[in-house]
Amino acid sequence: MSRDTDVLVLGGAGVDTIIHVPELPLPYADSYMIEDGVRTRAGQTGDFVALGLTRLGLRTHHLDLLGDDPEGDLVRALHKDHGIALTAVPQPLGTKRAVNLVGPDGRRLSLYDSSRAADGDRFPETTVRTLAEASRHAHASITQPCAHALPVLAESGVTISTDLHNWDGENPYHEPFALAADLVFLSTTALPDPESTMRRLAERGRAEAIVATAGAEGAYLLTDGSLTHIPTVTPPAPIVDSNGAGDAFAAGFLFGWLNGEPPHRCAHYGAIAGAYACTVPSTRADAITRADLMAGAAENPL
């Protein structure tokens, strides 16, 4: 069977409107003057993972629901401009969108428009199967249609990764993703006991590696029953925004993983890619190149 695609990314396509605010949380006021402007650009979690993988030289295909609307046009243009293959399933409710409030320190508060998704959202099974059977690996965003695509992905023989984002360790919605994935990414933001949650997932699921990113504290890698700390890497430029750092980490890790690198080196690549993402203003979509990743690894050896 030919596997002409390195990574099939499922879900997570959409558009963000970026508003830089003077502080977070934002105190109540009748109005604020936004000197940097209010800007809208394509790029949500699946888009950023697909972009990150493509910039690292991996053959990437993105599958998601898109509306016939201006937001959908922005997503299509992003993929065309960066040479990312895209299969867009029609979404009558419209393309996913969000508003991101970004503070001076780069932290963000995301407001997601949940009206553009429905419980009945599905990818056509034949489409998922055909794309998966042509891929080496699948990365599933935690959006509704991806949950129902997990059994088809498993049957296709691809390895699977997912990002649980700011899961609290209890919400049952995330569990099917966590238990079906060979690689699990998540944030420590809402976890009272990250190590306990990671070990529980390892015991119940099939994950060979679990990575919990912890912002400025680095990340934690659980593999073969051993938990290790992955330190941060000094960014190549000033930090301006944390938006997309977790997606960049996942792309860097997957680059190493699909090239046969050991988990610790994969996580190091993720840290380098995540640090680069923090130097990119949230008003544009960009990711580290393969050459810059290798240069960063040489400058920051394990």
TrEMBL record:
SUPFAM superfamilies: Ribokinase-like
Pfam families membership: PfkB
Keywords: Kinase, Transferase
Gene Ontology molecular function terms on file: kinase activity
Domain Carbohydrate kinase PfkB: 182-286
UniProt cross-references to InterPro entries, sorted A to Z: Carboh/pur_kinase_PfkB_CS (IPR002173), PfkB_dom (IPR011611), Ribokinase-like (IPR029056)
PANTHER family: RIBOKINASE, SUGAR KINASE
Protein name as it appears in the record: Sugar kinase
